[in-house]
């Protein structure tokens, strides 16, 4: 199962990178982040290690909370540390299987 985990992890990493690139190239606004979240949710994680799946889900949840705050007119800065921590955990989990 090691090679399968490694390949799926690389695929998740590539799909995440593509979604992030699209986010960075999109015009500012909540819509771009919603599109980013939708792309993250569409990443096929079927044979990825549980740690990678969980880290991606935690990251998506953190970004969604920030989007919800923005839509409600609240400051999104309090969500930044959770997003950064989740992104780091995702990177660490991917590195573990890469």
Give your account of this protein's structure.
The protein is mostly helical. Helix 1 runs antiparallel to helix 2 (30-41). It contains four helices and no strands.
What's this entry about, in short?
The chain is mainly alpha-helical.
Distance between the termini: 14 Å
Strand tally, please?
0
**Oligomeric form of this entry?**
single chain
| Sequence stretches where pLDDT stays below 50 over 5 or more residues | none
Structural class by SSE content: mainly alpha
Secondary-structure element order, as H and E?
HHHH
Continuous helix count: 4
Task: Name the average pLDDT.
Answer: 94
What level of helicity do the residues show?
Answer: over 70%
Portion in beta strands: under 5%
3D shape: globular
Rg value: 14 Å
Instruction: Report the sheet with the most strands, covering strand number, pairing sense and barrel closure.
Output: none
Furnish the topology, listing elements before pairings.
Blueprint: H1 2-25, H2 30-41, H3 50-71, H4 80-97
Helix pairs in contact: 1-2, 2-3, 3-4
């Amino acid at each position: 199962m090691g090679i399968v985990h490694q390949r799926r992890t690389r695929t998740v990493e590539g799909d995440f990178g593509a979604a992030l690139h699209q986010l960075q190239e999109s015009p500012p606004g909540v819509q771009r982040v919603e599109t980013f979240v939708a792309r993250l949710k569409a990443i096929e994680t079927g044979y990825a290690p549980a740690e990678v799946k969980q880290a991606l889900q935690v990251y998506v949840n953190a970004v969604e909370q920030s989007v919800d705050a923005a839509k409600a007119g609240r400051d999104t800065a309090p969500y930044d540390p959770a997003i950064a921590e989740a992104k780091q955990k995702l990177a660490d989990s991917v590195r573990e299987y890469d």
